[in-house]
Amino acid sequence: MSVFKLPAWVIKEIDKRRRNFLWGKGTDRGTGIPLLAWDRVCLPKDLGGLGVMNLRMMNISLMLKWLWLLVAKPSSQWSTIVRLLISSRNNTAPLTWNTLGSFFWKDLLSLRHIFTIATTAKVEDGKKTLFWYANWGAGHQFFFSNSTKPLNPKLTVYKALSNPAEVSPRPWQFHIHLAFSLLHSSLIANSSDSVVWNWNSTGLFSVKSAYHSLVFAGKTRFAGHALWKVKVPPTIKIFSVLLFHNRILTQDALLKRNIPFEEGCALCKQNLLETADHLFCHCSFSVELWNRVRGFFPTQIPSILQDVQTVMVQAFDRHNSNCAIILTTIWALWLERNNRIFKREERGVNSILHWLLMQHSLFEKAC
C-alpha cells in the first residue's frame, strides 16, 4: 500500500469486507443494513464521519513519502538508487521526471501534481529547482501535465534567469516576466535550494499531514465534533452520529426501505408511525424519563424537547457539562425500545432511571 498505487477493484473489495464487518452483514450481531454511506463513514470524526480510514487517500499519502525523499533528501540511499536507475546520474542535479520506468515509478509520476501543490521550492541558488515542474517563487507555478511538454523539461530556475531565451515566452509571457523580476535579485550563491511541505507547520513531510489535507480538502467541520470527547463509550458516540444524521432504523426508516414492521410506538403504546422525534422527544414515556433526569441534572437540559436535532446540538455543545447524561438518556431509551420489540421485556421509568444513573457514574470514572 505504501509502494504501489492500489487498483480501484482492490480497494473496492477491501471496503466491501470492512463495510460488511461494520454493519454485521452475514452475522447474528447486526442487521447487515448499511446505516451510513461508506464515503461518510470514511470521513474523519471532525467532519461528521466515523473516522474509518479512507484507503485511497491513505495510499496516496504513503506514496507521497517517496516523492518527498526523492526531492527533499537526494542524498538518502533510496533516492540515490532511484536517481541512478531512472532520473539522473548526479545527486546534486535536479530531479527530472522521466516517464520511462517501472510501474512503481509511473505510479509516483501520477501523483506529481498533488506533490507540486503540497510543496514549495525554496529557491536559493536556483540550481536544483526545475523551472517548469516546481512550485516556486511567490506562488508562481508553471506545472505541466503528462500530456503537455515544455520546451526544455530540464531547465532550472538558475538557467532560466541566466538565459531567458531558453524559455518559450509567448503563452506565459506576463507570468514569466513577473517571476523574473521577483527572483532575479533574490538568488543566493553558494546556498542550495530546498523544499518546504506546505501541509505541515514544520515544513516537513508527514503521512498524517498529507492524509489530513487530502481528506479535509473543501469540507466544513462537523457541528458535533466535540462529541468524541464526551465521557461515554464509543457505541453511544457512534449511535449519536447516526441519530444526528437521521440514520437509525425507526419505523419511518424501515418504511423507506420496504422492511415489514409492526406499526406503533413500543414505549407509549400509541398507534402511530414511530419517528426519531417522537421516540426521543414527544413520546409520553420519554418525556417522563427526561423530566426525572432533569431533576438530577437541572441545568443544560432543555425544558421542552422540540426535536432530535435540538437535543443533539445541545449534547454536542462542548461547554455543556451534562452532555454525557443527555447521550446516555437517549441510549437508554433506544435500548428500552429494542428490548420491548425484540425481547418482549419492559421496564418502568424508575428502573431505567436507576440503570441510567449507574451507567453515567461508571462512564465518568472509566472513560
TrEMBL record:
<feature type="domain" description="Reverse transcriptase zinc-binding">
    <location>
        <begin position="205"/>
        <end position="290"/>
    </location>
</feature>
<protein>
    <submittedName>
        <fullName>RNA-directed DNA polymerase (Reverse transcriptase)-related family protein</fullName>
    </submittedName>
</protein>
<dbReference type="GO" id="GO:0003964">
    <property type="term" value="F:RNA-directed DNA polymerase activity"/>
</dbReference>
<dbReference type="InterPro" id="IPR026960">
    <property type="entry name" value="RVT-Znf"/>
</dbReference>
<dbReference type="Pfam" id="PF13966">
    <property type="entry name" value="zf-RVT"/>
</dbReference>
<keyword id="KW-0808">Transferase</keyword>
<keyword id="KW-0548">Nucleotidyltransferase</keyword>
<keyword id="KW-0695">RNA-directed DNA polymerase</keyword>
